[in-house]
Amino acid sequence: MSTWFLTGASRGLGAHWAEAILERGDNLAATARDAAALKPLTDRFGDRVLALGLDVTDRAAVNAAVDEVEQRFGGIDLLVNNAGHMLHGAVEEVSTDQARAQMDVNYFGPLWTTQAVLPGMRRRRSGRIMQVSSIGGLVAYPALGIYQASKWALEAMSQALAAEVAAFGIHVTLIEPIMFPTGLAAASPQTTPDPAYAHAREALYASAASSGFVPGDPAATAQAILALADTPNPPLRVLFGVNGFDALRTEYAGRLAGLEKWHHISRLAQGAGSGDK
C-alpha cells in the first residue's frame, strides 16, 4: 500500500485521480483550498484519506501538512503537484498581483511541496514526484504567456531536480495534459481585455482550432496516472492526450532553424580565434 500526497484534489483531473487512488486501496493525503470540498472522499473511504485544507503558496502551511501526513501514514511515496490555475490575457494586460499569483500557485507551490517531501524520500531512498505541467510548458501561444511562463519554470526546475535526486532512487515526471474539458479556464482569473490585443486572442483560438488537438476524457487520465505510478522507470515527460507531436515537432524544428539562421550573430558574439562548431 502506497501513500500519495495530491494537491488540487477537489476538482478537475485531481478529483478523478483522488478517487482512483483510493479505489485501488492506497492511502491518500488530499488537499484543496477548502477541506470541506473533500468530505465525499472521507465519507466514502474513511481513514485511508486525510483531507487537508491547504494553500500551496503558504510554505509554512505546506511544511506542516507534509509533517502531518508523514506522522499519519509513516511517509509519502508519491507526490502529485496538481493545484493550479490558468491566467488568460496578453502580457501587457497582466497586473502585478495576477502575475505573482500565477507564479505563486503554479511554480512556487510545487517547489514548496517538492522541497517538503524530499527529506523523507531521500531517507527511504525511494519516491515519485509527478508535476502537472501542460502542453503549454513546451510551447507558448499568445494570450497565455504568463500561465505558460509558470509552466516553463516548473519544467526547468523539475528537469534539474530529476538529475539531482536520481541517485536517491527518486523519480520525477512532468505530466503534459493537452486538452481536457475540466472547467479550468472558466474557473481561472482573466485580465481586463485591451482591444489592442484582440488579434492575440484570435491567434490563440486559431491555433487551438488548427492544432488537431482532440478533447480527452478527464476520467481516463486516472488510469494513466496509476500506470505511471506502477512503471519501474517512468519518463521525465509524458503527454496526456493525443495529437500533440505535430505541434512539438514544429516548435522544436523552428527553434533549431532560427538559431542556425542567426549563427553568424552567435559567431560575432563569440569573438575571434575561438573556433566555430
UniProtKB/TrEMBL annotation:
<keyword id="KW-0560">Oxidoreductase</keyword>
<dbReference type="Pfam" id="PF00106">
    <property type="entry name" value="adh_short"/>
</dbReference>
<comment type="similarity">
    <text>Belongs to the short-chain dehydrogenases/reductases (SDR) family.</text>
</comment>
<dbReference type="InterPro" id="IPR002347">
    <property type="entry name" value="SDR_fam"/>
</dbReference>
<dbReference type="InterPro" id="IPR051911">
    <property type="entry name" value="SDR_oxidoreductase"/>
</dbReference>
<dbReference type="InterPro" id="IPR036291">
    <property type="entry name" value="NAD(P)-bd_dom_sf"/>
</dbReference>
<protein>
    <submittedName>
        <fullName>NADP-dependent 3-hydroxy acid dehydrogenase YdfG</fullName>
    </submittedName>
</protein>
<dbReference type="GO" id="GO:0016491">
    <property type="term" value="F:oxidoreductase activity"/>
</dbReference>
